[in-house]
Write a structure and sequence with these properties.
Shape: globular
Structural class: alpha+beta
Strand order of the largest sheet: 1-3-4-5-2-7-10-9-8-6
Strand content: 25-35%
Order of helices and strands: HEHEEEEEHHHEEEE
Radius of gyration: 19 Å
Helix content: 10-25%
Low-confidence stretches: none
Largest sheet: 10 strands, antiparallel
Number of helices: 5
Oligomer: single chain
Length: 295
């Protein structure tokens, strides 16, 4: 399929032709292996033995299980599965996470099997400041022991490739709040980005292949993984909440590059609500998150 279109109308028509995929579902099962749990704990710098078999896991960890396994012959030039193998065949070549809205009712347990049911909710064309994009929204229902422990609506953005020699367009910077209640520094080192990609079975080349990131997708360097961005925001915020996490929504606004040191910051949580964000070295907002918690 083409990744460039002669007109906005032709682009919109191509995306709207994917309507039959809306409502389709696929199921991924996972044994929530204690080995994988230990690897996640190590990657996030927890005690490796903190979650023995049967232990309840942190409520947001469900996003690091249920990796989509595909044959190597089904992998495309960008490292993602080819169009139509796992996700609908959206005819744009670049895909990145943009945000999510999550409701949490329970938690996974180490060694207790679970499954994820993924439904295609919407596929929408949009003509924005950064060019033609398609927004794919998926709804993930996480179940274990016959109970739903989380509902996760996830947005992915598909974009055109930049012209040869052209830089990737990004959203203009917005200043982050300058008086957070708390702040911690985080460096997205190559090793932590690699380990997260390995755990989630994510072979997207923008995360590890600098030549591809620069020459094909127009980035100045390899790009940090958005799933890890949201994970470390929660890891920083949860110890500062006074109750149990019941949901969150997140939006990724500017890319973070591998090797960058950022500030994860937040406001004082009250009345069951809290906010946190990530500021880059120039003080620009890269990601925001609203959290809900119960006492």
């Amino acid at each position: 399929m083409a990744d460039r279109y002669d007109s906005d109308e032709a682009f919109i028509e191509a995306i709207e032709a994917l309507a039959p995929h809306i409502g389709t579902e696929r199921v991924a099962e996972d044994d929530i292996s204690p080995v994988t749990v230990r690897r996640i704990a190590g990657m996030l710098d927890h005690d490796l033995d903190a979650f023995p078999n049967g232990a309840a896991l942190p409520p947001h960890w469900f996003g690091m299980f249920f990796a989509d396994a595909t044959r190597q012959s089904d992998i495309g030039p960008d490292g993602h599965p080819n169009k139509g193998v796992v996700l609908p065949p959206i005819p744009l070549p670049r895909r990145m996470g943009a945000g999510r809205r999550v409701t949490i009712n329970g938690t996974l347990r180490a060694g207790v099997p679970a499954r994820r049911i993924t439904e295609v909710v919407t596929i929408a064309p949009k003509i924005g400041r950064t060019g033609r994009i398609a927004i794919l929204t998926l709804r993930n229902k996480i179940e274990t022991g016959g109970e739903v422990v989380a509902i996760d609506e996830f947005d992915a953005i598909y974009r055109e490739m930049p012209a040869p020699g052209e830089k990737s367009r990004i959203t203009p910077p917005t200043p982050a709040p300058d008086s957070p209640a708390w702040s911690v520094e985080m460096t997205f080192s190559p090793t932590v980005v690699f380990r997260y990609s390995a755990i989630t079975w994510n072979a997207h080349r923008i995360h590890y292949d600098a030549d591809y990131a620069r020459e094909e997708e127009g980035y100045p360097a390899t790009v940090q993984n958005g799933g890890l961005t949201m994970t470390v925001m929660l890891e920083a915020a949860l110890p500062r909440l006074t109750g149990k996490l019941t949901g969150f929504s997140a939006r990724l606004t500017r890319p973070i590059y591998v090797g960058d040191t950022v500030s994860i910051q937040g406001g004082a949580g009250e009345d069951g609500l809290a906010t946190c964000w990530i500021a880059d070295k120039d003080g620009a907002m890269c990601a925001t998150m609203d959290l809900e918690f119960a006492g």
